[in-house]
Amino acid sequence: MNKERALSRRLILVVMLILIWVIVWNSIFAIATGQLLVGVVGGVVGLALIGMSIEGSVMRKLEGREVPDLALLMLGLIILVLVYGEIRDLIINDLEFLGEFYLPGLIALIRILGSFGLAALLIWETFKLMRKPLP
Amino acid sequence: MGFLTLVDQREQLHTNIELARDNRETKRSNATLLRWGSIGLLAGGVVCTIVSGGLCGLALIGIAATSFFASTQEDSDGEVYQNSVDSEAQQLSTVEGDLRFRQKIADSIETGG
After folding, report:
1. A 68-107: CB under 8 A from B
2. Is A2 among the domain residues?
3. Confidence band, pLDDT 50/70/90 cuts, at residue A1
4. Are the Cβ atoms of A34 and B33 closer than 8 angstroms?
5. How confident is the model at residue A2 (pLDDT cuts 50, 70, 90)?
6. Structural domain includes residue A19
7. What is the distance between the alpha carbons of residues B77 and B35, in angstroms, rounded to a whole number?
8. Count of Cβ atoms closer than 10 Å to residue B4 Cβ
9. Domain total in chain A
C-alpha cells in the first residue's frame, strides 16, 4: 500500500459528514417551511448516509488508496461549491420576519455555520494530503 | 386614503409578503438540494477516480456542473422573491406609518385635544 498521498479515513469521514450535514439540515428546513415530501426524502437519504458511515465498509475499501491529481481537483471543487452556496444562502437569510422570530432562518443559519466549519476541516485535510506528494 | 382601506391594504401586503417568502424558501431549499447533488456527484467522482481512473470522474464533473448551474438559477429566482419581499415590506411600513398617523388624529379628536 502506498503511504504517500494516501486517502485518509478522516478525509473520507469529513466528506461524508458534509453530505450528511447539508441534507439533514436542509430536510429540517424544508419541513419547517412546509415542504414535507422534500424533508422526508432528504431525511431518509441522510439516514442512509449515516448508516453507511457507521457500517464503515466503504471507508475500509477506500482508506489508504493513492489519490490522483484529478481527485484532488474534485475535492477543491467540493469546497468551492459548498462555500459559495452557503455564502449565497447566508445573504438572503433572516432571523426575524415581520417583527417576529423566524425559526427556518435559525435552522438555515445553523446549517450554514456548520458547513463553514466542515469546509475548513476539508481544506485542512486536503492540504495535509497535498503536503505529501508522490515520490 | 381612508382608515379601513389602509387596514385592507396592510392585510393584502402581509399576504403577499408571506407568499413571496414561501416561494423564496422553496427556491432556497431546491438550490441547497441541487448543490448537495453537485457535492455528492463530486464525492462520487473522487471515489470513481481513485478506484477506476479519471474517465468516469470527468463524466461526473460534467453532471455535477449541470446540477450546480441549475442551483444558481434557483438562487437567482430566490433573490427575485427576496426583492419582492423587501419592496412589499417597505410599502407595509409606509401603510403602517399612515395608520399610526390616522390613529393619533382619531385619539386627539376623541380626547378633545
Report:
1. 68, 70-71, 74-75, 77-78, 81-82, 85, 88-89, 92, 97-98, 104
2. no
3. very low
4. no
5. very low
6. yes
7. 15
8. 8
9. 1
Residue B25 with chain A: CB contacts under 8 Å: 29, 33, 104
Residue A101 lies in a domain: yes
**Residue B57 to residues B41, B43, B70: CA-CA distances in angstroms?**
9, 9, 20
Task: Name the percent of chain A in helix, strand, coil, to the closest 5.
Answer: 75, 5, 20
pTM of the model: 0.86
Decide if A21 is inside a domain: yes
User: Could you tell me the residue range of the domain that residue A37 belongs to?
Assistant: 9-130
* Chain B closest-CA separation from residue A70 CA (Å): 7
Provide the mean pLDDT of chain B: 90
User: Residue A13 and residue A11: Cα distance in Å, rounded?
Assistant: 5
Cβ A17 vs Cβ A120: under 8 Å: no
Tell me what percent of chain B is helix, strand and coil, each rounded to the nearest 5: 95, 0, 5
Q: Which three cell numbers stand for residue B3?
A: 382608515
CA–CA separation, B82 vs B31, rounded Å? 14
Q: Residue A64, CB half-sphere, CA atoms under 13 Å: how many?
A: 5
C-alpha to C-alpha distance for A53 and A45, rounded to whole angstroms: 12
pLDDT at A7: 84
